[in-house]
Amino acid sequence: MPFHRIDTPGELLYASRRKKDVHLLSEKRRGIIGTLTSRCRMNRITHYCRTLLALALALSLTSCGVAMTDGQKWLDSKTDAPEMNIAGQWVSPEWGDANFKQEKKDVSGMLGDYPVRGVVSGNQIYLLMYAGDKVHYSAKLKASDENNFEGFYSKYSIIDEPRTDRAYIRPITLRRVGREVTPSDTGAARSQTPPESKRTQEPVAAVPKQAAEAKPKSVTLRNTPSLNFSENDLYRSIKEHNFFSKSYNSTGDFVNDFVDNGDGTVTDRVTGLMWQKEGTTSEVSFGGAQQYVQGLNTNRFRGYADWRLPTAEELCSLLEPGLSQRGQHIDIVFSPSTLACWSSDQRVLYGSKHAYVVYFGKGDVEPSRADVVASAIHFVRAVRTAS
Questions:
Q1: Which pTM was predicted?
Q2: Which of 16, 27, 185, 186 is most buried, taking the most CB atoms under 10 A from its CB?
């Protein structure tokens, strides 16, 4: 309510313009009314802002995804004749169980919780994971053999034409666990098996246990840091060496051959790497990690001056698929306190420097902020090439 000022002896009084009668108000009472009026105005503004925010959120949710008509055009553009039939049951570490049906080149079914529409073109699969009339994910996979496919999927975009606003690209793998069997297939399979085959099979000599437990072959891992190590580079490295990673290769199982040297170091006879058994006792920034390694070399830790930060590839070789007795994805020969370790591999994300970190608690690898100004903190487990 607006007021105009009236000067009276002893105190300030005000008269209302909206009413004919004059209300005499003390300066204190007017201050209280003014405060309440201001709060009411702020509450109305807050209410309007919340309403606008809710409308914007609802609009963004309804606009997520690609129109199914555009997705179908993408599928129709894949014209190569199918080289295989993918009908049957599959499993994806990233998505879960899958069940596909195939008629000529067209594919339908379920992948995880999403209905799927797709095509087989040559030795590649093109898939749309949709909800209603919107495509939420698209995927493109190539066959490594008839039972395994590898590729990438994109969110809210067509994988061949990713948008820059919401799109991201992640790896996806599919492994066949069962085929769709028809009666004709069953009959053909029986006709190809001679009825006397069981009687004519030659006995097979048992393989000696020592021969079956052969020593794993040695593997050479990349030891040169990369300043632009992309997520695709990480994925290819993990798949190439069959490292375990919950996000990139949940069925991986790299075989090590550790030897505790009894001096605070552990040697892997498969990779030829010598590791610190413990590493730093507290978390440090990425710059602190580099300084820590320099200190090891200056002081010739365990008699060596060639210690370094391991690459992400080298650190991933320590990931174990199963949890140890201490609930970690690393062999119990190592100290349990060093849960997340810096690697030397870097990349730029959102305009900031990041370095890859291997998390032995959750069994995965992710980039972490490594800027000088704002760096995350993690542990360090240094490495050197032993042989």
A1: 0.49
A2: 16
